Amino acid sequence: MSYSPAITGAGVYTPVESISNAELVEAFNAYADKFNAENAVAIAAGDVEAKDHSSEDFILKASGIESRYVMDKSGVLNPDIMYPQMRQRQDDEPGIMAEMAVDAARKALAQAGRKPSDVDAVICAASNMERAYPAVAIEIQDLLGIDGFAFDMNVACSSATFGIQAAADMVRSGSVRSALVVNPEICSGHLEWRDRDCHFIFGDVATATLIEREEDAKGPRFDILSTRCATSFSNNIRNNNGFLRRSRPDGVKDRRDMQFMQNGRKVFKEVLPLVSQHISTHLQEEGVPHTQLKRLWLHQANKQMNDFIGKKVLGRTPAPGEQPNILQEYANTSSAGSIIAFSQNSEDLSEGDVGLICSFGAGYSVGSVIVQRRA
Q1: At what angle do helices 21-38 and 56-63 cross, to 10 degrees?
Q2: What percent of the chain shows pLDDT beyond 90?
Q3: Residue ranges per domain, the chain?
Q4: Do 261 and 241 form a contact (C-beta atoms < 8 A)?
Q5: In sequence order, what are the beta bridge partners of 358?
Q6: Is the preceding omega at residue 134 within 30 degrees of 0, hence cis?
């Protein structure tokens, strides 16, 4: 017997601290000045490249980002540190990703009118995990008091939509009645804040969605009509900061390529047609004309990218509200971005309205979820 899955609740955990572009630029430029002064001789000799200043105008034009939430502000803004400083927790303490995820999960459960005892499975889908094992998902399961099973998955910025597909498939098959998909993203810990080309991109957040059989829903829901995922290997977005990061025989530890890196021009050129075609083909194969779409909740990577995709999919410039952007406040939060947009911009839809959640990123990867509002 097959069942129909639905999203019955969504939640967002937002860190207390935030960094404006003005604050970020001030800190970066102070770091650049310090670097240039300390390396003046080598720079004059042509052996070291001087650091250019960043600017608010540059950041806004390049990304559409105006601020970002972070788990630690002081470390990032300290020109002598330039990375978040988060206390190393003891093994018997809850992990920081688990704490973030639990907050978002409880909000999703509350919206759905559910208790942890109603959940059968937990999927922690995120781009950067706090540790290799035990699975963060199992820790979240334990903190919430959920029976059943849990596991981690990583498909970079597409992790949330891939997690939703996995949860929806389990509900469809009858192996679970409900599954919680959580996306805790501490992107600040993997960003190279000393790189002018990317120091403004990421923020921290956690999101959660509850997937249930539509017949079990206690209130308004979004029926999952169809899901579609695709991957194609590329090195144009990469993070090498894995367990081998200290293994170089030459003793070099502060390697630039161990943090987030991307070839922005190639990503823009290659990912945009991939995502636009993926969405259009998904809609066509499911018999959903693009004119029927009331809302596009896209991955929050870059405003220019989203504007391009929205125009390609709809065949026109999206009207205000059709394609909500939240990156001006949150910045790029990796897999959580499209879920923030969905959580904050979905309750106004009417009975029968159709929308699409889409995330995309390193891999390359792209995941899309077609949903329909039910009161």
Answers
A1: 120
A2: 86
A3: 223-374
A4: no
A5: 298, 368
A6: yes
- Helix pair 264-285, 303-314: axis angle to 10 deg: 30
pLDDT for res 132? 86
CA 67 to chain CA centroid, Å, is 16
Q: Which class does domain 223-374 fall in?
A: alpha beta
> Which of 111, 61, 297, 300 is closest to 211 using CA atoms?
111
Q: At what angle do helices 337-344 and 159-173 cross, to 10 degrees?
A: 70
User: Considering the entire predicted model, what is its pTM?
Assistant: 0.94
* Active site members: 157
> From its phi and psi, is residue 145 left (phi > 0), alpha (psi between -120 and 50) or beta?
left
Distance, CA of 326 to CA of 338 (rounded, Å): 9
Q: Could you give the CA distance from residue 346 to residue 209 in angstroms, rounded to a whole number?
A: 13
CA distance 138 to 116: 14
> Mind listing the pLDDT tens digit for each residue in 78-113?
999 999 998 888 999 999 999 999 999 999 999 999
Mean pLDDT of the chain: 94
